[in-house]
Amino acid sequence: MNLRQWRPLPALLGAALLALVVRVGYLAELNGSPFLSVLLGDSRQYDAWAQQIAGGQWVGTEIFYQTPLYPYWLAVIFSIAGHNLGLVRLIQAILGAASCLLLGLAGRRFFSDRVGVIAALLLAVYPPAFFFDGLIQKSSLDIFLVTLALALLGEFYRRPTLGRVALKKPWRVWKRRLALPTPLVKPMQPGRSTRPYDNRER
Fold first, then answer.
1. What pLDDT, on a 0 to 100 scale, did the predictor assign at position 59?
2. What residues does each domain of the chain span?
3. Disulfide-capable partner of 96 in 31, 33, 133, 181 (CB 3.0 to 4.6 Å)?
4. pLDDT (tens digit per residue) in 135-192
5. In whole angstroms, what separates CA 172 from the centre of its chain?
6. CA distance 117 to 170
7. Biggest CA-to-CA distance, the chain
8. What is the C-alpha separation between 73 and 70, in angstroms, rounded?
């Protein structure tokens, strides 16, 4: 294992820990307030839907009027731990911290170690991010899944053979369908390095 490759890992873990502290502190500050105890709008709908699913309606009988992943995710938690929204928010805080780590890993894969650490730190203290982590809303799960996809794509992208070969053909299809100008997409094309020093000896 290349030790240089893992040098920024402590910084990324520190950013994730900072994110968790910020989110848990935010929830503790709002504990007992109507903001957390009263569900409105989509939050109320997601909660009711998840309770129906956890109560046995896993298949459903109607067309989904919203994306169903988040209610089903809530339903799994409710089935295991009961109707505990505090636990849901704590899990979302942990996912938010994990998102910072994943974004940092993606940043260092696509750009540089410094970019990865900065991106992780910015997401850790970004107010809308920990605000949505405290809501019963799909945004928290969305951010986690997007950063997970970016981190996995970054790992796949950096592989010298299989990843780049597998991505080249879909990339050409996406480029044609999106009608993106070549100068815009060429720096990000799979198989092309985004780091000026990638071809140097390490």
1. 80
2. 7-158, 161-202
3. 133
4. 999 999 999 999 999 999 888 877 665 555 555 555 555 545 455 455 444 444 445 5
5. 26
6. 30
7. 60
8. 5
Amino acid 119: pLDDT: 95
Secondary structure of 74-133 in HEC code, one letter for each residue: HHHHHHHHCCCHHHHHHHHHHHHHHHHHHHHHHHHHHCCHHHHHHHHHHHHHCHHHHHHH
Q: Which residue has the tokens 């986690």?
A: 144
Q: How far, in whole angstroms, is CA 126 from its chain's centroid?
A: 14
How high is the pLDDT of residue 2? 52
The angle, 0 to 180 degrees and rounded to 10, between the axes of the packed helices 162-178 and 139-158 is 120
Residues with Cβ within 8 Å of residue 84, at least 6 apart in sequence: 77, 78
Environment class of 152 (CB within 10 Å of its CB; exposed 0-12, middle 13-18, buried 19+) = middle
Closest-CA residue to 70 (of 120, 135, 10): 135
| pLDDT value for 31 | 87
Give the residue carrying structure tokens 């899944």. Answer: 145
The pLDDT confidence band at residue 84, using thresholds 50, 70 and 90, is: very high
Query: How far is the C-alpha of 46 from the C-alpha of 66, rounded, in Å?
Result: 9
